[in-house]
Amino acid sequence: MNSSNERESFSQRLQQALKNAHYSPDSPTRLAREFNIRFDGRPITVHAARKWLVGEAIPTQEKLRMIAQWLGVPAEWLRFGGPEDGAPASDNAASLSRFESADVKLIADLQRLDEHHRQIAREFIRMLVRVNYQK
């Protein structure tokens, strides 16, 4: 397969994975924002996200692994395709990797707290969950 076909095929798999994870495959701005929230390295631009979506570029291996984890698909499938057909690595792993932006920011805020305040926040969340299940 030539590199143009590889990029186009990657783009199609990325769009499918985004749809399966309930994200728009048509928004490079949202893709860049969601990616940058989760990626520890240098942030990507909207232009780079657009190139991934339209088949002009394939992300580096490190970025590709993060995208696969976020969207709950095997990294090998996302890069090369194959019989997995975009199936989640596991239902549990997929659901754990699909946080909304606000949830990711909340977790980052929680990590900035000292241990005492983190424990208070955890207890408060557990209490809310118990109250919610009693309804």
TrEMBL record:
InterPro entries xref list: Cro/C1-type_HTH, Lambda_DNA-bd_dom_sf
Example of a GO MF term: DNA binding
Gene3D superfamilies in the record: lambda repressor-like DNA-binding domains
Domain HTH cro/C1-type: 51-78
Signal peptide limits: none
Listed name of the protein: HTH cro/C1-type domain-containing protein
Organism listed in the record: Duganella alba
